[in-house]
Amino acid sequence: MREEDRALLRQSILFRDLPADGLARVCENAFMQTLPKGALLFEQGTMPEVLHVILSGRVALMGELPEEAAAVVEFFNAGDALIVPAVVLDLEYLLSAQVVAEARILMIQVALFRHCLNTDIALAAAATRLLSVHWRRLIEQIKHLKLLSATRRLAAYLLGNAPMESGSARFRFTEERRLLATRLGMTPESLSRAFARLREQGVATEGAWIEIRDAARLRAYVDSGGTVSPEAPAKSPGRA
Fold first, then answer.
1. Residue 24, Cβ neighbours under 10 Å: how many?
2. Last residue of a domain, which of 145, 179, 199?
3. Which residues pair with 76 in a beta bridge?
4. What is the pLDDT, as a whole number, of residue 239?
5. What is the pLDDT of residue 1?
6. What per-residue confidence (pLDDT) applies to 240?
7. Between 56 and 5, the higher pLDDT residue
8. Residues of the domain holding 178
9. Whole-angstrom Cα distance, residue 131 to residue 51?
10. What would the mean pLDDT of 50-74 be, rounded to a whole number?
11. In angstroms, rounded to a whole number, what is the distance separating the alpha carbons of residues 14 and 123?
12. I need a labelling partner for 101 at 20 to 30 A (CA). Which of 8, 37, 82, 164 fits?
């Protein structure tokens, strides 16, 4: 493993607090792959052979049903380990994983990971923290799907990806609109309408760029049930 990859691995909740010897043990015989956008890491219904840890890039976890289009359940970023429960329990994956932005993935042999998990208290504690983070992320998504309108779900998602919680924010959004729509439980047409409605709340889009004029105000819009009065539409990013 390259030193820069080791540094990236230390960004993961799963490995950042492990002592050097513990990290060396769990990564013994691990290997790295750089995968392009569109690459399939694993398929729903297959058994885990390795634990996938994202060092850079972005991966979508997707659910499928016969004769139905696949839907994104969640996006994962650098530092995330994918579907740890299937690896720990030695059960089939309930979702598929597809690279949505070129990614470097560390692949750890499942038998070795399970052995280290059973013998290394620090790794077991880190795995508990990681699963807790993922559980809270899932519960938040379920709440949004059940309690928020489509436009408020989009606003909440944008706020969750914005680089700050107050003031103005401008950031690049890498998701394909069709994938984002399924993640938010919408059709692409509903997503377009939701973006249009958010212009009244100070959200502007230009290509892949998103601008939020006032993040605190947009948060109030989400939390108030969408009753915050509209303001003048935000200007498109980069335009006078």
1. 12
2. 145
3. 59
4. 45
5. 67
6. 33
7. 56
8. 148-223
9. 14
10. 91
11. 7
12. 164
Largest CA distance in the chain: 60
Contacts 24+ apart (CB under 8 A), 118-125: 120/18, 120/22, 120/25, 120/26, 122/17, 122/18, 122/19, 122/22, 123/14, 123/18, 123/22, 123/26, 125/17
User: Looking at the structure, do residues 51 and 156 belong to the same domain, yes or no?
Assistant: no
pLDDT in the model for residue 231: 53
pLDDT tens figures, 153-164: 999 999 988 877
Residues 42 and 136 in one domain: yes
**pTM here?**
0.82
Domain CATH code at residue 127: 2.60.120.10
Instruction: Describe the strand order of the beta sheet including 169-172 as a list of residue ranges.
Output: 169-172, 209-212, 203-206
Residue written as token pair 């077991």:
124
3-state secondary structure labels for all residues of the chain: CCHHHHHHHCCCCCCCCCCHHHHHHHCCCCEEEEECCCCEEECCCCCCCEEEEEEEEEEEEEECCCCCCCEEEEEEECCCECCHHHHHHCCCCCCEEEEEEEEEEEEEEHHHHHHHHHHCHHHHHHHHHHHHHHHHHHHHHHHHHHHCCHHHHHHHHHHHHCCCCCCCEEEECCCCHHHHHHHCCCCHHHHHHHHHHHHHHCEEEECCEEEECCHHHHHHHHHCCCCCCCCCCCCCCCCC
201-219 confidence digits (pLDDT tens): 999 998 889 999 999 999 9
pLDDT reading at 138 higher than 70: yes
Q: What is the pLDDT confidence band of residue 112, given thresholds at 50, 70 and 90?
A: very high
Between helix 110-119 and helix 121-147 the angle, nearest 10°, is 110
How many distinct structural domains can be found in the chain?
A: 2
